[in-house]
Amino acid sequence: MESVISDSVLLAFEILLLSCFYLQFGTALDTVTPSESIKDPEFLISQGGVFRLGFFSFANSTNRYVGILYNQIPVQTVVWVANRNKPPKDSSGILNISDDGNLVVLNGKAEILWSSNITNLVPNATTAHLLDSGNLVLSNGEDGASSLWKSFKDASNAFIETMKIGTDVQRGLKVELKSWKSIDDPSDGSFSFGFEPFNIPELVIRNNNKLYFRSGPWNGNIFIATIMKTVYIDGFHVVADNQRQVYYITHEYSRLKYYELDSQGKLVERTWDAGKGDWINMYFTSQTESCVYGQCGAFGMCDLTKQPICSCLKGFKPRNIEEWSRGNWSSGCFRTTPLQCQRDKNNGSEAGQGDVDGFLKLNMMKVPAFPDLSSINNGECKDQCLKNCSCVAYAYDAGIGCMFWSGDLIDMQKFSTRGVDLYIRLPSSELVIVITAAIVGIVTITIIILFLWCWMAKRRGRKQKHKQIELQLNKGNAMTKFSSNVGENSIGAKLQQLRLFNFEELATATCNFDHANKLGQGGFGPVYRGTLGDEKEIAVKRLSKASVQGLEEFMNEVEVISKLQHRNLVKLLGCCVEAEEKMLVYEYMPNKSLDAFVFDPIKQKVLDWRKRFNIIKGIS
Ligand SMILES: *[C@@H]1O[C@H](CO)[C@@H](O)[C@H](O)[C@H]1NC(C)=O
Ligand SMILES: *[C@@H]1O[C@H](CO)[C@@H](O)[C@H](O)[C@H]1NC(C)=O
Ligand SMILES: *[C@@H]1O[C@H](CO)[C@@H](O)[C@H](O)[C@H]1NC(C)=O
Ligand SMILES: *[C@@H]1O[C@H](CO)[C@@H](O)[C@H](O)[C@H]1NC(C)=O
Ligand SMILES: *[C@@H]1O[C@H](CO)[C@@H](O)[C@H](O)[C@H]1NC(C)=O
């Protein structure tokens, strides 16, 4: 019941609390002390009123959580939760300073649901202070100088301004975002977001501790290969101090904005829109355009614009064809021809006999994971890599220097607008293939273009004629409608009695030339049975595309048949000329062709000699 508290009741509480505190204790409202605890549904408000700390619930749940929320906006926005995994079901919870000096959340039975969990604190001397930054700080005594614990160091799923996400190697500190199980269940989800040193620091998202997303290495300005345009624009600040081994990312911005790691593992930028009265969510662009880490396996390259998205690098083949073709690319690719330096080594000789390895340049790439670092400049990266047979690729970035890779190349992605040049080591035989293929390709394309050009030029002449006839046909059709008399030598006039069908009409009539509707196959092409919109049954002869008959010949045929209208002959109802399609439309003869009777041993009895004579007379 208590969980549903209207705003006005809350406001009343607030005023009540205010007056109580000021009257009775005269203490600030932003502090928990050993003698002043927070009982559900009380809360603290930071001095400037930006954040509040207290008990809250999510919609459709009676679970009570202690958390830090934005205080000045109408939408419940939680940026930190203490007892994520152990919420009391009722409003008996208390947030206080325990006897050992820790900040704790207790249930009605005084069981500890959550603790700041610091050892060796001075009892009765600690206080917890909620700052306007949204940081809850446990410190010794009144001065609050030495912080013993901070909510910023025990992050939930929200990355708010001035928080530092990162790693302090020497002090063994690591602050990362942890996703919630779902949007209204803050218990531990499977994703985490952090800034990890590696050899060159990168932002990473892990799923159940396994790499899921990499930003690409930090070059002092940007995370290369995954633009984070927001580095400058959105007030990000990155510290990567190799000497002190301190690596963190933080942000400060003039707008109300924060980042959240959602339960699907996506980093969302949330900006408050006062006009709409809600948060505007935007996915971190580089991340939504990114392949999952290692999706294409070793030596596999991901390209989201391709189908399938994974392919093996040149000179490599899928390790497991069957899995690969099923879309499970995780086992990756293997080198089909060993590197020259490997062959030389196996052969006992130090240097190759003139045959050395080369490099295949791939541009706009996200570089593979785990580069080795060297600060030598560009010209020498290649030589440096060639000197060491375990070097399988290199790349250069002005802010980083040379990057080298040995072992498997994992998590490469091809971009269309960003990234760096990546050089893959290949034996010269493979490179010769690549170069030859390129030359052959260019020559072939040139020949094809020339050929096409000639063909089109020839065709253009014919097209003109085609156009003329089509125009006349249309004219003829229009003329039938107005039943006007036109001169004998115009095709339009010859076809006066004919109807011009359009392709769609006939396709509909024959259920898209369904095989079930096929009546037979003539020299002209297949014949289909169809039904027009007015229930009239028709037979459609479709000129096979293979037929070399041109439009002119077709029109002559139509002309002849249309002149041969007789009640003993099948009636031509119309024709269709559209693009490459040419069709004749006849009335449908339910009794089929005469030969079906003449040559059928049973049916031929229907035709006595008198009838046959009449038919012969009729035809002639
Ligand atoms: C406190 O820390 C210990 C060991 O680090 C851990 O086992 C325990 O679960 C923690 N307790 C709480 C309430 O977080
Ligand atoms: C802490 O203070 C309370 C009252 O303010 C007192 O009852 C308690 O004994 C003190 N505890 C210690 C360990 O000093
Ligand atoms: C893909 O293949 C790997 C290695 O053979 C296997 O461990 C994994 O379970 C497969 N994944 C799926 C989704 O089939
Ligand atoms: C070893 O080198 C010799 C000549 O130097 C060559 O004929 C032979 O094919 C090489 N063997 C391998 C395995 O590459
Ligand atoms: C060759 O490269 C590997 C991996 O980068 C490295 O461990 C090794 O020390 C290098 N060897 C030489 C002689 O530079």
UniProtKB/TrEMBL annotation:
<feature type="domain" description="Apple">
    <location>
        <begin position="341"/>
        <end position="427"/>
    </location>
</feature>
<keyword id="KW-0808">Transferase</keyword>
<dbReference type="GO" id="GO:0004674">
    <property type="term" value="F:protein serine/threonine kinase activity"/>
</dbReference>
<keyword id="KW-0812">Transmembrane</keyword>
<dbReference type="InterPro" id="IPR000719">
    <property type="entry name" value="Prot_kinase_dom"/>
</dbReference>
<dbReference type="InterPro" id="IPR001245">
    <property type="entry name" value="Ser-Thr/Tyr_kinase_cat_dom"/>
</dbReference>
<keyword id="KW-1133">Transmembrane helix</keyword>
<dbReference type="InterPro" id="IPR003609">
    <property type="entry name" value="Pan_app"/>
</dbReference>
<dbReference type="Pfam" id="PF00954">
    <property type="entry name" value="S_locus_glycop"/>
</dbReference>
<keyword id="KW-0547">Nucleotide-binding</keyword>
<keyword id="KW-0472">Membrane</keyword>
<dbReference type="InterPro" id="IPR001480">
    <property type="entry name" value="Bulb-type_lectin_dom"/>
</dbReference>
<dbReference type="InterPro" id="IPR000858">
    <property type="entry name" value="S_locus_glycoprot_dom"/>
</dbReference>
<keyword id="KW-1015">Disulfide bond</keyword>
<keyword id="KW-0418">Kinase</keyword>
<protein>
    <recommendedName>
        <fullName>non-specific serine/threonine protein kinase</fullName>
        <ecNumber>2.7.11.1</ecNumber>
    </recommendedName>
</protein>
<feature type="domain" description="Protein kinase">
    <location>
        <begin position="513"/>
        <end position="620"/>
    </location>
</feature>
<keyword id="KW-0067">ATP-binding</keyword>
<keyword id="KW-0723">Serine/threonine-protein kinase</keyword>
<dbReference type="InterPro" id="IPR036426">
    <property type="entry name" value="Bulb-type_lectin_dom_sf"/>
</dbReference>
<dbReference type="Pfam" id="PF08276">
    <property type="entry name" value="PAN_2"/>
</dbReference>
<dbReference type="Pfam" id="PF01453">
    <property type="entry name" value="B_lectin"/>
</dbReference>
<feature type="domain" description="Bulb-type lectin">
    <location>
        <begin position="29"/>
        <end position="151"/>
    </location>
</feature>
<keyword id="KW-0732">Signal</keyword>
<feature type="transmembrane region" description="Helical">
    <location>
        <begin position="431"/>
        <end position="455"/>
    </location>
</feature>
<keyword id="KW-0325">Glycoprotein</keyword>
<dbReference type="InterPro" id="IPR011009">
    <property type="entry name" value="Kinase-like_dom_sf"/>
</dbReference>
<dbReference type="GO" id="GO:0048544">
    <property type="term" value="P:recognition of pollen"/>
</dbReference>
<dbReference type="Pfam" id="PF07714">
    <property type="entry name" value="PK_Tyr_Ser-Thr"/>
</dbReference>
<dbReference type="GO" id="GO:0005524">
    <property type="term" value="F:ATP binding"/>
</dbReference>
